[in-house]
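## retry 2 of 3
previous attempt timed out at serialization; input unchanged, resubmitting
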Amino acid sequence: MTSTVPFGTVLVANRGEIACRVIRTLKRLGIRSVAVYSDADRDAPHVALADAAVRLGPAAARDSYLSIDAIIEAARRTGAAAVHPGYGFLSENPALAQACEQAGIVFVGPGIHALQVMGDKITAKHAVAEYDVPTIPGIAEPGLTDDDLIAAAEDIGYPVLVKPSAGGGGKGMQSVRSADELPEALRTARRVAAAAFGDDTLFLERLVASPRHIEVQVLADAHGGIVHLGERECSLQRRHQKVIEEAPSPLLDAATRERIGAAACRVAASVGYTGAGTVEFLVSAEAPDEFFFMEMNTRLQVEHPVTELVTGLDLVEQQLRIAAGDPLAFGQDDVHLRGHAVEARVYAEDPERGFLPAAGRVLALREPAGEGVRVDSGIAAGIPIVTDYDPMLSKVIAWGEDRAEALARLRGALAGTSILGSVSNIAWLVDLVSDEDVSAGRMDTTLIDRRFSERLPAPATEEEVVAAALLAHHDRWQEGPERVGSLWAEPTGWRLGRARPSRYDVDGVPVTVAGPADDAVVTIDGGDPRPASLRLRAPERTGEPAVALLDLDGRMLRFDAARDDATVWLARDGRARPLRLRDRAELLADRLAALDRGDAAAHPELRSPMPGTVVAVPVEAGARVEAGDTVVVVEAMKMEHRLVAPVAGTVTVHVASGDLVRLDQLVARVDADDASTPSDQPLEKTGIA
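## retry succeeded, writing output
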């Protein structure tokens, strides 16, 4: 491998964990790095990590990370010789590649022709078919009407898959099992495609039974060299979004691996590809020796670390050297896969609330380390979780000599991850990678949606409630009379006569504590007094959580802990849980509100289920609404959430369109009519572009 530095300065046109990951390679190579940021990301880790940083604009992506003019101007101002787009945002946009070319700046990615051809699934399908690459049976022509598609479906045979030609991420895709379902599926797909991509062109493919998503990493230089780096299994998906990825696939045998790799190289050759790219195939678990081309991603993939771990190559370095004009320093025979690697995507979302986006400020953070463990992260303690963009926070990756060892290490790494200050999907991921079928490699793209798509809310455990109460008690015990206000208010309960225990309300559960936290007697919700102790260990490093050791009834439990005003955050086995300590004023207000409601079954308050932006208030203050009417619409992380009236009544609105709202912030109130009945309509959620 050549040791020359391919560029003097590179601008990274992205954010979050991928920007941090690219910058780390730039630093290792001795290349000056330039970060860009929006107003929402002013304090983000990628900004602090880079050698220089340039503001692009406001938080909205269209005014910052999607502004080609702003990115080119930032590159000019900082003397960047090249722009690395990461993934997402403008990474596959031919207009950015063209703007870079016109400005005399190198675009770290393929040429404009490859971006244009592979950016349209219909065009791509025809291009690769001419290079003897198998494609899924179907019809893919520009300008197909609904009547054309309905007629073609009879020849293709049901079930079929309706797919938009533009865009990706599964948006607009519709599975159709019978002819009577197809017209409505076509209308839905066109509507979503037009809103998401500005193009409602559709095509049809046969729906493959027990589908496995297998993709192949390729590298191609400008001198005709093309190699593949093995395949990745990406079949564990939720609503067409990848969750777990691994390399190599447990499905393929050596002969199929060689054939699918060669096919991926032909795909790259069909468009004169240069750089790193991924060719995605669909494979039926029932016929694993057959594979069909789906699409080519003309950029680095989120899951590229698993390929790096089994090949020993730095794919970002390869991208940079190819973009600088260097030939590949190795051939196909030099590529060897060693061991197995698995990656899990950590999202700021709550599986117990329908995977609603979650936010907050990272109070404390513990990320795993150890043999075979890698973390690509875009968060840090003290930094807010931004809801304006994709909810992915980090990726936890594990390598092992074989698949079993890699999965075991991943489970341990996820269980040892604590993000305090926001809810995440980490505990859900632990359950997923512990599943018997996943461990055995028996999976397809529908497994999560069939068995892991819903998770019922789990109430706080008795141990968590006690730990939260004792943490609050520990803090009060340390304050002393100068902070509590008087000697009579000290938590020792000192007074003339018998000492009185301290009382706490933890998420609605009353707890009394007598004595200091490290040698206490607790009573939970009026039960029997029980001995308990809690000892705190200070963080080893700045930004890490404290360690709380709880002994309850002789059982010792370890929690990572942090406190934010009236909320105690506890994390254990990957689950971070907020436990709210309600004070006497709040409890009194709740009792008075309950008296005001009388026998009414529904609570009158509407609170935001997540932090976000109010995008619509379709009712006026003082208006009368029916049960189920939309009162406020909140947007966060590319999703709209409609808050509906719980009962018929008169509405009071506390927010306006454009307002930023916090999690559980009061946004409206509906005072019920005397004869109102509660709405049985759930919170509605719709995807947006």
